[in-house]
């Protein structure tokens, strides 16, 4: 559920809040219909001309790369081919994307601190788990690709590319690690908060992956929805109560 440079020095467009491509819903061909368009992003301040040009270049290069990866496979397309298709040099490409995997994974960049933002912006009186539960259930209702509950063909193709490429899966764990760290800082930064953040991020990842696996196996998002909601409700109960088995009624 949650990609670009590994540190602030590699940010090509001024930081995560200004990076394009909110998530897998931005896969080529995504439209504006429910679940098929870009994942909702937080509002950002207007960019200057230079930053807008960087952003457009960033998006154009990634779009060209993903189209080639979907057609031929990630491992069968070289960085040099991507650079040529985007009409830029390899050194320029690597200034935007420090690693080949980031050509794909930057689409999750805006989600690195999503859980942290949800907790930080929660209404007064809501607990962190209240806010995160409501946010995830709302995502399921919207068929947000980040929840795994999206059967738009372009999104499925993108996720098959992602989950079917070991190097992309490995790289994705770095993004999830940063999501966990951001949430832990928002919760308070102590050991107990880091433990809580690790559990929360793991739960969100597993829920999304299970939803995607069912849809990849041929079920529709509408058919999976009720089970996905119940699984999410059960998962948040488990987060609240811990790992002790619940008494049977």
Helix content: 55-70%
Q: How many beta-strand elements?
A: 0
State which percent range the strand residues make up.
Answer: under 5%
> Structural class of the secondary structure composition?
mainly alpha
What is the general shape? globular
Rg calc: 18 Å
Tell me the span between the first and last alpha carbons: 34 Å
Q: Unreliable runs, pLDDT <50, ≥5 residues?
A: 1-43
Order of helices and strands: HHHHHHHHHH
Report mean pLDDT, rounded to a whole number.
81
Helix count from the secondary structure assignment: 10
Biggest beta sheet attributes:
none
Please characterize this protein's 3D structure.
The chain is mainly α. Helix content is 58%, strand content 0%. α6 packs antiparallel against α10. The longest helix has 26 residues, at 191-216. Residues 1-43 have low confidence and may be disordered.
Outline the fold blueprint.
Elements: H1 49-72, H2 79-86, H3 90-96, H4 102-105, H5 114-120, H6 128-142, H7 153-163, H8 166-187, H9 191-216, H10 221-241
Helix pairs in contact: 1-2, 5-6, 5-8, 6-10, 8-9, 9-10
């Amino acid at each position: 559920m949650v990609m670009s440079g590994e540190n602030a020095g590699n940010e090509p467009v001024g930081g995560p809040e200004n990076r394009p491509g909110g998530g897998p819903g931005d896969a080529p061909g995504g439209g504006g219909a429910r679940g098929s368009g870009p994942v909702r992003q937080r509002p950002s301040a207007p960019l200057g001309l230079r930053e807008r040009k960087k952003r457009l270049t960033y998006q154009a290069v990634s779009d060209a790369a993903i189209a080639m990866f979907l057609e031929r496979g990630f491992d069968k397309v070289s960085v040099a081919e991507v650079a040529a298709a985007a009409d830029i040099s390899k050194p320029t490409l690597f200034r935007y994307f420090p690693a080949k995997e980031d050509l794909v994974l930057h689409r999750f960049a805006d989600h690195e601190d999503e859980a942290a933002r949800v907790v930080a912006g929660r209404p007064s009186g809501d607990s962190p788990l209240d806010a995160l539960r409501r946010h995830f259930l709302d995502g399921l209702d919207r068929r947000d690709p980040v929840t795994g509950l999206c059967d738009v063909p372009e999104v499925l193709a993108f996720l098959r590319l992602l989950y079917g490429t070991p190097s992309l899966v490995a790289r994705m764990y770095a993004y999830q690690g940063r999501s966990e760290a951001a949430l832990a800082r928002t919760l308070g930064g102590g050991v107990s908060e880091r433990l809580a953040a690790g559990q929360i991020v793991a739960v969100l990842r597993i829920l999304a992956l299970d939803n995607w696996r069912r849809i990849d196996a041929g079920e529709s998002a509408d058919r999976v929805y009720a089970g996905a909601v119940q699984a999410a409700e059960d998962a948040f109960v488990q987060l609240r109560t811990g790992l002790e088995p619940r008494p049977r009624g």
